[in-house]
Design a protein that fits this description.
The protein has 14 helices and 12 strands. The protein is α/β, with parallel strands linked by helices. Helix 3 crosses helix 5, helix 6 crosses helix 7 and helix 8 crosses helix 11. The strands form 2 sheets. Strands 1, 2, 3, 4, 5, 8, 9, 10, 11 and 12 form a 10-stranded parallel sheet that branches. A two-stranded antiparallel ribbon has the order 6-7. The protein has 2 domains: 252 residues, Luciferase-like domain (TIM Barrel, Alpha-Beta Barrel), CATH 3.20.20; 67 residues, no CATH class. The protein is 45% helix and 17% strand.
Length: 334
C-alpha cells in the first residue's frame, strides 16, 4: 500500500530560519513537498524556496503560488531555471491569477485572466524546454528569446507547472494546459466536486484524463489537544478571509447573511480590532466546514474528506504548533 502523500505550506508566520528547520523536520517525517506562499505584499516565494532547497535533499519545493502579472515572463522562466540549478528535479512552479483589490492597488489590471494565464504558461514552458521562443500574444511579446545558459545544464528542465485555481473557468484551463492544479483552501470539501468536473472538462479537450492532472490542495490546519484553542486559531483566519476574499467563502456555501454581517465590522485591510470584533460572529460549524481544525482525530477526518473529494495531496497550512501538526500527519491521515 502506497504511503499517504502530504505536504507543508508556509506563509510568513515563521522566520525563514524557522521555515528551514520546519522543512528539514517535515522531510525527515516523510512529507513530500513544501509550498511557499506569495500573495500579499509581505514575503516573496523565491528567496525562501531557495533557502528550503539548499537545506533539504528530497523535499519538493513549490511556489504556492506566485502570479502571472508581476514578473516578466523571461525573468519568471530564468528564476525557475535557477531554482532547478539549485535543486534539480525538485522544483514546482505554482502560479495563479492573483487577486483584487491588491492587484489594482499596485497598478495591475487583471484583464482577461484566462488568456493571460494561458500565454504565460505557454511561453514559460517553452523557455524551460530550452526552446528559442517567438510569441506575439495580447499579454506577452517575445522575439527570439531563450534561456541563455553559458555554463551549466542546457537540457530541458523538469519543472512542472501547477495553476492555483479557485474559479471554475481557471479550473478548466488548468485541466487543459497545466501539469497540476493547486486547489485553494478555506473551501468546503463539496466545492471540490464542481472543481473536478471542470478540470476533467479541460483535460478532455486535449485528450487527457482527470487522473493525468495532479490535484494537491491547500488545507488550513489548526490542531491542538486543546480543542477550543485549535478552533479559535482557525476562526481568526476564517474571519480575515470572510472579509478579504468573500468569493472563496461564498463558493463553500457560507451564507450571504453571514458575509454581510462580517462586512459591517470588517474592512480591507482589516485591523486587529476589527478581526477581534468579528470573531464572535463566526460559529464553530463554519470554521470546521472549510478548515481542518480541532483535535488530532478531527483534523485527520477532515483531511480524509478532502481526499475523498478528489484532493491528491493535502498541503497543510499549520496554525499553532507546526511541529505538532507534522508529527500528527507523519504517518499519513488514516
Amino acid at each position: 500500500m502506497s504511503k499517504d502523500r502530504v505536504a507543508l505550506y508556509l506563509q510568513d508566520a515563521h522566520s525563514i530560519q524557522e521555515g528551514i528547520e520546519l522543512c528539514k523536520y517535515a522531510e525527515d517525517k516523510g512529507f513530500e513537498a513544501v509550498w511557499q506562499a506569495e500573495s500579499r505584499l509581505v514575503r516573496d516565494a523565491i528567496v525562501p524556496m531557495a533557502a528550503f532547497a539548499a537545506h533539504t535533499s528530497k523535499l519538493k519545493i513549490a511556489s504556492g503560488v506566485t502570479n502571472n502579472w508581476t514578473r516578466n515572463v523571461g525573468l519568471l522562466a530564468a528564476t525557475f531555471l535557477t531554482l532547478d540549478d539549485l535543486a534539480q528535479d525538485r522544483i514546482i512552479l505554482g502560479i495563479g491569477a492573483w487577486w483584487d483589490p491588491l492587484a489594482s492597488k499596485v497598478g495591475i489590471n487583471r484583464n482577461k485572466p484566462l488568456l493571460a494565464m494561458r500565454e504565460t504558461v505557454e511561453v514559460v514552458r517553452r523557455l524551460l524546454a530550452m526552446e528559442n521562443v517567438t510569441f506575439f500574444g495580447e499579454f506577452h511579446h517575445v522575439d527570439g528569446i531563450q534561456l541563455d545558459v553559458v555554463h551549466g545544464r542546457r537540457e530541458p528542465r523538469n519543472v512542472p507547472i501547477y495553476i492555483g485555481a479557485t474559479g471554475m473557468k481557471m479550473m478548466e484551463l488548468a485541466g487543459e494546459i497545466a501539469d497540476g492544479v493547486c486547489m485553494n483552501y478555506l473551501v468546503a470539501p463539496k466545492y471540490n466536486i464542481e472543481a473536478l468536473d471542470n478540470i476533467e472538462k479541460g483535460a478532455k479537450k486535449v485528450g487527457r484524463k482527470l487522473d493525468d492532472i495532479d490535484r494537491p490542495q491547500l488545507v488550513l490546519c489548526s490542531v491542538d489537544y486543546d480543542r477550543k484553542k485549535a478552533l479559535d486559531g482557525a476562526r481568526k483566519m476564517v474571519v480575515q478571509y470572510l472579509g478579504q476574499q468573500p468569493h472563496l467563502m461564498k463558493a463553500s456555501g457560507v451564507s450571504q447573511e453571514l458575509l454581510d454581517e462580517i462586512h459591517q465590522v470588517l474592512r480591507w485591510p482589516a485591523t486587529d480590532e476589527e478581526i477581534e470584533a468579528a470573531m464572535h460572529i463566526v460559529p464553530d460549524d463554519v470554521v470546521q466546514m472549510c478548515t481542518a481544525s480541532g483535535s488530532p482525530e478531527e483534523v485527520k477526518a477532515k483531511v480524509r474528506e478532502y481526499i475523498a473529494n478528489g484532493c491528491t495531496c493535502p498541503i497543510l497550512y499549520p496554525l499553532g504548533d507546526a511541529r505538532l501538526m507534522i508529527d500528527i500527519f507523519a504517518d499519513g491521515y488514516n
